[in-house]
Amino acid sequence: MTAQLPLLLEPSELARHLDDEHLLIVDLCKDQVYDQAHVPGAVHLDFKRLLAGTQPAPGLLPDDRALSALFSDLGLTPDTFVVAYDDEGGGWAARLLWTLEVIGHHRYAYLNGGIHGWLAEDLPTSTEPGEPEPSDYQVGPHDPKANVDLDYLLAHHRDPDVVVWDARSEEEFAGVRAFAQKAGHIPGATLYEWTDAMDKTNNLRLRDLDTIRRELADQGIQADKQVITHCQTHHRSSFTWLVGKILGFKDIRGYAGSWAEWGNHPETPVEKPE
Questions:
Q1: How far apart, in whole angstroms, are the C-alpha atoms of residue 124 and residue 113?
Q2: Catalytic residue among 23, 111, 216, 231
Q3: Are strands 205-206 and 198-199 parallel, antiparallel or unpaired?
Q4: Would you call 23 helix, strand, or coil by DSSP?
Q5: Which of 75, 175, 198, 230 is the most buried (most CB within 10 A)?
Q6: CA separation for the pair 24, 85 (Å, rounded)
Protein backbone atom coordinates (compact mmCIF):
# COMPACT_ATOMS: atom_id res chain seq x y z
CA MET A 1 0.00 0.00 0.00
CA THR A 2 1.23 3.48 -0.82
CA ALA A 3 2.73 5.36 2.09
CA GLN A 4 1.60 8.89 2.90
CA LEU A 5 3.87 10.71 0.47
CA PRO A 6 4.68 14.41 1.02
CA LEU A 7 2.19 16.92 -0.35
CA LEU A 8 4.93 18.48 -2.49
CA LEU A 9 6.37 15.41 -4.18
CA GLU A 10 9.66 15.49 -6.03
CA PRO A 11 9.91 13.55 -9.30
CA SER A 12 12.71 11.31 -8.03
CA GLU A 13 10.59 10.27 -5.06
CA LEU A 14 7.55 9.49 -7.19
CA ALA A 15 9.79 7.40 -9.44
CA ARG A 16 10.54 5.11 -6.48
CA HIS A 17 6.83 4.50 -5.86
CA LEU A 18 5.46 3.86 -9.36
CA ASP A 19 4.62 0.23 -8.56
CA ASP A 20 2.95 0.95 -5.21
CA GLU A 21 -0.46 -0.55 -4.61
CA HIS A 22 -3.35 1.97 -4.49
CA LEU A 23 -1.31 4.69 -6.22
CA LEU A 24 -3.26 6.68 -8.80
CA ILE A 25 -1.30 9.15 -10.93
CA VAL A 26 -3.50 11.64 -12.77
CA ASP A 27 -2.17 13.62 -15.72
CA LEU A 28 -3.99 16.88 -16.51
CA CYS A 29 -1.73 17.93 -19.37
CA LYS A 30 -2.99 18.87 -22.79
CA ASP A 31 -4.02 15.83 -24.85
CA GLN A 32 -1.08 16.06 -27.23
CA VAL A 33 1.41 16.32 -24.36
CA TYR A 34 -0.02 13.24 -22.67
CA ASP A 35 0.07 11.32 -25.95
CA GLN A 36 3.71 12.25 -26.49
CA ALA A 37 5.03 11.42 -23.00
CA HIS A 38 3.58 10.90 -19.55
CA VAL A 39 4.56 9.37 -16.24
CA PRO A 40 4.24 5.58 -16.61
CA GLY A 41 0.80 4.42 -15.54
CA ALA A 42 -0.66 7.93 -15.39
CA VAL A 43 -4.33 8.28 -16.27
CA HIS A 44 -5.32 11.28 -18.36
CA LEU A 45 -8.10 13.55 -17.13
CA ASP A 46 -9.85 16.31 -19.04
CA PHE A 47 -9.90 19.30 -16.68
CA LYS A 48 -13.39 20.23 -17.89
CA ARG A 49 -14.78 17.41 -15.76
CA LEU A 50 -13.69 19.36 -12.67
CA LEU A 51 -15.92 22.33 -13.54
CA ALA A 52 -19.69 22.79 -13.65
CA GLY A 53 -19.15 24.84 -16.81
CA THR A 54 -22.37 26.82 -16.42
CA GLN A 55 -22.64 30.60 -16.80
CA PRO A 56 -22.10 33.03 -15.24
CA ALA A 57 -19.73 31.07 -12.96
CA PRO A 58 -18.28 28.12 -14.90
CA GLY A 59 -15.75 27.36 -12.17
CA LEU A 60 -18.34 26.14 -9.68
CA LEU A 61 -18.12 22.48 -8.69
CA PRO A 62 -20.05 19.88 -10.67
CA ASP A 63 -22.91 18.33 -8.74
CA ASP A 64 -22.28 15.27 -6.58
CA ARG A 65 -23.64 12.91 -9.21
CA ALA A 66 -21.10 14.15 -11.75
CA LEU A 67 -18.29 14.07 -9.17
CA SER A 68 -19.21 10.52 -8.15
CA ALA A 69 -19.11 9.46 -11.81
CA LEU A 70 -15.75 11.20 -12.31
CA PHE A 71 -14.07 9.58 -9.35
CA SER A 72 -15.60 6.19 -10.12
CA ASP A 73 -14.15 6.45 -13.64
CA LEU A 74 -10.75 7.22 -12.12
CA GLY A 75 -11.02 4.22 -9.80
CA LEU A 76 -10.88 6.23 -6.58
CA THR A 77 -11.35 4.34 -3.31
CA PRO A 78 -10.77 5.46 0.28
CA ASP A 79 -7.34 3.77 0.13
CA THR A 80 -6.24 5.47 -3.09
CA PHE A 81 -3.31 7.86 -2.94
CA VAL A 82 -3.59 10.38 -5.77
CA VAL A 83 -0.63 12.16 -7.37
CA ALA A 84 -1.60 14.92 -9.80
CA TYR A 85 0.45 16.89 -12.31
CA ASP A 86 0.03 18.98 -15.44
CA ASP A 87 2.07 20.92 -18.00
CA GLU A 88 1.27 24.49 -16.90
CA GLY A 89 2.81 24.84 -13.47
CA GLY A 90 0.09 23.30 -11.34
CA GLY A 91 -3.27 24.98 -11.94
CA TRP A 92 -5.29 22.03 -13.19
CA ALA A 93 -3.47 19.52 -11.00
CA ALA A 94 -4.30 21.69 -8.00
CA ARG A 95 -7.93 21.96 -9.07
CA LEU A 96 -8.14 18.16 -8.86
CA LEU A 97 -6.46 18.11 -5.45
CA TRP A 98 -8.73 20.89 -4.18
CA THR A 99 -11.75 18.90 -5.37
CA LEU A 100 -10.46 15.88 -3.45
CA GLU A 101 -10.13 18.11 -0.37
CA VAL A 102 -13.74 19.27 -0.83
CA ILE A 103 -15.04 15.70 -0.84
CA GLY A 104 -12.92 14.73 2.16
CA HIS A 105 -10.27 12.63 0.41
CA HIS A 106 -6.95 13.78 1.89
CA ARG A 107 -4.54 11.21 0.45
CA TYR A 108 -2.96 13.21 -2.33
CA ALA A 109 0.22 14.93 -3.53
CA TYR A 110 1.37 17.35 -6.21
CA LEU A 111 4.27 16.44 -8.50
CA ASN A 112 6.64 19.40 -8.24
CA GLY A 113 7.21 20.86 -11.71
CA GLY A 114 4.65 18.56 -13.33
CA ILE A 115 5.68 16.85 -16.53
CA HIS A 116 8.43 19.45 -17.04
CA GLY A 117 10.05 18.54 -13.73
CA TRP A 118 9.74 14.84 -14.56
CA LEU A 119 11.32 15.18 -18.00
CA ALA A 120 14.12 17.40 -16.67
CA GLU A 121 15.29 14.55 -14.45
CA ASP A 122 15.35 12.15 -17.42
CA LEU A 123 12.92 9.79 -15.73
CA PRO A 124 11.07 7.09 -17.69
CA THR A 125 8.01 8.04 -19.71
CA SER A 126 5.27 6.16 -21.49
CA THR A 127 3.02 6.67 -24.49
CA GLU A 128 0.64 3.88 -23.46
CA PRO A 129 -2.66 5.24 -22.12
CA GLY A 130 -3.19 4.52 -18.44
CA GLU A 131 -6.28 2.40 -17.85
CA PRO A 132 -7.85 2.88 -14.43
CA GLU A 133 -9.89 0.13 -12.80
CA PRO A 134 -13.30 1.75 -12.28
CA SER A 135 -14.75 1.87 -8.78
CA ASP A 136 -18.13 2.77 -7.32
CA TYR A 137 -17.26 6.00 -5.56
CA GLN A 138 -20.06 7.96 -3.95
CA VAL A 139 -19.33 11.53 -2.90
CA GLY A 140 -20.46 12.23 0.65
CA PRO A 141 -20.73 15.45 2.67
CA HIS A 142 -18.43 18.25 1.56
CA ASP A 143 -15.76 19.74 3.81
CA PRO A 144 -17.17 23.18 4.71
CA LYS A 145 -13.66 24.60 5.18
CA ALA A 146 -12.47 23.82 1.65
CA ASN A 147 -14.88 25.97 -0.38
CA VAL A 148 -16.79 29.17 0.31
CA ASP A 149 -19.83 30.47 -1.54
CA LEU A 150 -20.87 33.98 -2.52
CA ASP A 151 -22.97 34.56 0.61
CA TYR A 152 -20.09 33.57 2.90
CA LEU A 153 -17.65 35.86 1.14
CA LEU A 154 -20.10 38.76 1.13
CA ALA A 155 -20.51 38.34 4.88
CA HIS A 156 -16.85 37.86 5.78
CA HIS A 157 -14.56 39.54 3.23
CA ARG A 158 -14.04 42.52 5.55
CA ASP A 159 -13.50 40.50 8.73
CA PRO A 160 -10.15 41.41 10.36
CA ASP A 161 -9.14 37.74 10.62
CA VAL A 162 -9.95 37.02 6.96
CA VAL A 163 -7.72 37.83 3.99
CA VAL A 164 -8.88 37.48 0.40
CA TRP A 165 -6.03 36.32 -1.84
CA ASP A 166 -6.58 37.38 -5.45
CA ALA A 167 -4.51 35.17 -7.75
CA ARG A 168 -5.31 37.01 -10.99
CA SER A 169 -3.08 39.35 -12.97
CA GLU A 170 -2.27 42.90 -11.94
CA GLU A 171 -4.37 44.17 -14.86
CA GLU A 172 -7.43 42.21 -13.72
CA PHE A 173 -6.95 43.27 -10.10
CA ALA A 174 -6.69 46.92 -11.10
CA GLY A 175 -9.73 46.73 -13.34
CA VAL A 176 -7.76 47.44 -16.52
CA ARG A 177 -8.81 44.06 -17.91
CA ALA A 178 -12.18 42.54 -17.12
CA PHE A 179 -13.80 39.22 -17.92
CA ALA A 180 -17.07 40.07 -16.19
CA GLN A 181 -19.58 42.92 -16.12
CA LYS A 182 -17.65 44.59 -13.30
CA ALA A 183 -13.93 45.32 -13.24
CA GLY A 184 -11.63 45.56 -10.23
CA HIS A 185 -11.32 43.44 -7.11
CA ILE A 186 -13.12 42.40 -3.95
CA PRO A 187 -12.79 45.21 -1.37
CA GLY A 188 -9.81 44.56 0.90
CA ALA A 189 -8.41 41.78 -1.30
CA THR A 190 -4.67 41.46 -1.74
CA LEU A 191 -2.88 40.48 -4.93
CA TYR A 192 -0.28 37.74 -5.33
CA GLU A 193 -0.42 36.39 -8.87
CA TRP A 194 -0.39 32.62 -9.15
CA THR A 195 2.66 32.43 -11.41
CA ASP A 196 4.74 34.38 -8.88
CA ALA A 197 5.11 31.14 -6.90
CA MET A 198 6.57 29.28 -9.89
CA ASP A 199 10.26 29.11 -10.76
CA LYS A 200 10.26 29.75 -14.50
CA THR A 201 13.99 28.96 -14.63
CA ASN A 202 13.55 25.54 -13.00
CA ASN A 203 10.84 23.71 -14.94
CA LEU A 204 7.96 25.47 -13.14
CA ARG A 205 8.78 23.94 -9.78
CA LEU A 206 7.76 25.96 -6.78
CA ARG A 207 10.20 28.67 -5.80
CA ASP A 208 11.90 28.57 -2.42
CA LEU A 209 9.09 28.10 0.09
CA ASP A 210 10.50 30.48 2.70
CA THR A 211 10.78 33.18 0.04
CA ILE A 212 7.16 32.66 -1.02
CA ARG A 213 6.09 32.72 2.63
CA ARG A 214 7.83 36.08 3.18
CA GLU A 215 6.37 37.57 0.03
CA LEU A 216 2.88 36.49 1.03
CA ALA A 217 3.32 37.83 4.56
CA ASP A 218 4.34 41.18 3.08
CA GLN A 219 0.92 41.21 1.43
CA GLY A 220 -0.85 40.24 4.64
CA ILE A 221 -1.40 36.65 3.48
CA GLN A 222 -0.25 34.54 6.42
CA ALA A 223 -1.00 31.36 8.28
CA ASP A 224 -2.71 32.96 11.30
CA LYS A 225 -5.53 34.28 9.07
CA GLN A 226 -8.43 32.59 7.36
CA VAL A 227 -7.30 32.83 3.74
CA ILE A 228 -9.84 32.73 0.90
CA THR A 229 -8.32 32.57 -2.56
CA HIS A 230 -9.92 33.17 -5.94
CA CYS A 231 -9.19 34.07 -9.56
CA GLN A 232 -11.68 34.17 -12.46
CA THR A 233 -12.92 30.55 -12.33
CA HIS A 234 -10.90 28.98 -9.46
CA HIS A 235 -8.35 27.47 -11.80
CA ARG A 236 -5.36 29.72 -11.05
CA SER A 237 -6.48 30.04 -7.44
CA SER A 238 -6.62 26.28 -7.01
CA PHE A 239 -2.85 26.51 -7.36
CA THR A 240 -2.59 29.31 -4.80
CA TRP A 241 -4.80 27.24 -2.49
CA LEU A 242 -2.31 24.40 -2.92
CA VAL A 243 0.62 26.72 -2.24
CA GLY A 244 -1.04 27.74 1.02
CA LYS A 245 -1.53 24.09 1.97
CA ILE A 246 2.12 23.33 1.20
CA LEU A 247 3.17 26.29 3.37
CA GLY A 248 1.16 24.87 6.25
CA PHE A 249 -1.77 27.30 6.28
CA LYS A 250 -4.37 25.71 8.55
CA ASP A 251 -7.40 27.54 7.16
CA ILE A 252 -7.14 28.23 3.45
CA ARG A 253 -10.28 28.02 1.36
CA GLY A 254 -11.17 28.32 -2.30
CA TYR A 255 -13.94 30.48 -3.71
CA ALA A 256 -15.08 28.44 -6.69
CA GLY A 257 -17.46 31.12 -7.98
CA SER A 258 -14.47 33.49 -8.18
CA TRP A 259 -14.59 36.72 -10.17
CA ALA A 260 -16.89 35.22 -12.79
CA GLU A 261 -19.58 35.07 -10.11
CA TRP A 262 -18.61 38.13 -8.02
CA GLY A 263 -18.02 40.40 -11.00
CA ASN A 264 -21.33 39.49 -12.64
CA HIS A 265 -23.50 39.78 -9.52
CA PRO A 266 -25.62 42.95 -9.21
CA GLU A 267 -25.09 43.39 -5.47
CA THR A 268 -21.38 42.75 -4.94
CA PRO A 269 -19.05 45.62 -3.96
CA VAL A 270 -16.00 46.25 -6.11
CA GLU A 271 -12.81 48.25 -5.53
CA LYS A 272 -10.47 49.86 -8.04
CA PRO A 273 -7.30 51.84 -7.41
CA GLU A 274 -7.82 55.60 -7.39
A1: 15
A2: 231
A3: antiparallel
A4: strand
A5: 230
A6: 11
